[in-house]
Amino acid sequence: MLKEELRYGILVRWDPWPGIGDSIDLYENHPGMITDPEWRDVGVRWARRLGHRVSVVVYDYRWLTVIGPDEYERLRREVIRQDEARGYVGTE
Prior knowledge:
By secondary structure, the protein is an alpha+beta fold. The protein has one helix and five strands; from the N terminus they run βββββα.
């Protein structure tokens, strides 16, 4: 993601650099929406499972990739599928 793309409401997916691995309890490609477009510490509302807290801050906007609504919905459903496979039920 580029700095110029930062603005409220943009749909994104978690796309950290190689070697960083999963962080803040997100799956690779986890979908979310920007809620606080600061320069570096970007706030994101992540699609997540019920009863499980996930940080809404991403420390580097470059670990995000902009996506469209169709991809967001597809990835959100994948999060639900992965959660169900792990025994979790539902998402927020």
